[in-house]
Amino acid sequence: MAKLSPMTDADRARVAAAVSTAEGNTSGEIVTILAARSDDYADVALAWSALVALAALLALAWAPDVYLALVDRLTGTWARHWTPGGIIGLAALVAALKFGATWAILLWRPLRLAFVPGPIRHARVHARALAAFRVGAERRTTGRTGILIYLSLAEHRAEILADQAIASKVSADLWGEALAAMLARLKDGQMADGLIAAIERVGAVLAQHLPRAEDDRNELPDRLIEV
C-alpha cells in the first residue's frame, strides 16, 4: 500500500460535501470516522513479554549447565557452587530482564502493531467501530437510519455499520463493494478519495432502498470525525 497522504482542510471539506450530496437522495444519515488506530494493544505487548520471559525460563530449565557456565564466565567465577536459592534467583533475574527488554522494544508502536495477530486486530477494529457507532449513529435519528463508515489507519481496516432501518432492508454484503472502492483508493495513497468513494457507494445503496422523504432533515453531522 502506498503511503497515505495526510488529510488537509480541503480534503475534509470534500468528504463533508460528499456526505451532504449522498444524503440528498436518501433518508439515511452517513457518519464518517477516521481513527489513527483502534487500540493501544498494550495487553498484546504484555503477553509477548511474558511469553519471552517464559521461554527464557524454559531454556534455563532445559540446559541449566550451559547458562550457569555462561554466568560464571561473565562474572569471572571459577567452578561456583550453585545453590537452589541461587539458581532460583538467577532464573527470576533472567525472566525479569527478558520481560523488561521485550516490553521496552514493543513500546515502539509500529513494531508492537506488527506483532499483533490479524484476528486480534480485526476484532479490536470492529469493537472500536461498534462503540463509535453506538455513540455517534445508532438510534440517533428519528427513523433509525444512521450508518457509519469507519476507517482505522494503523490497522489498515475499515467497517461499515448500519442502524436498524437500514440493516433490515440492505444486506451487509452490499457494503463490501463500498469497502472495496475505498481500499482501491487507499492503495494509491488517496485517503480522502477513498472515503469519498465509499460514501458515494453507500449513498447509492441508501438512495435505492431508503429514498429521501419530503420531511427529512439532517440529524447527524456531515463533517469527518477524526479520533
UniProtKB/TrEMBL annotation:
Protein name, per record: TPM domain-containing protein
UniProt-listed InterPro entries: TPM_dom (IPR007621)
TM region(s), chain numbering: 44-63, 83-108
Short name of one Pfam family: TPM_phosphatase
Keyword presence, Membrane: yes
Organism phylogeny: Bacteria, Pseudomonadati, Pseudomonadota, Alphaproteobacteria, Sphingomonadales
TPM domain span: 143-204
UniProtKB keywords: Membrane, Transmembrane, Transmembrane helix
The keyword Transmembrane helix is annotated on this UniProt entry: yes
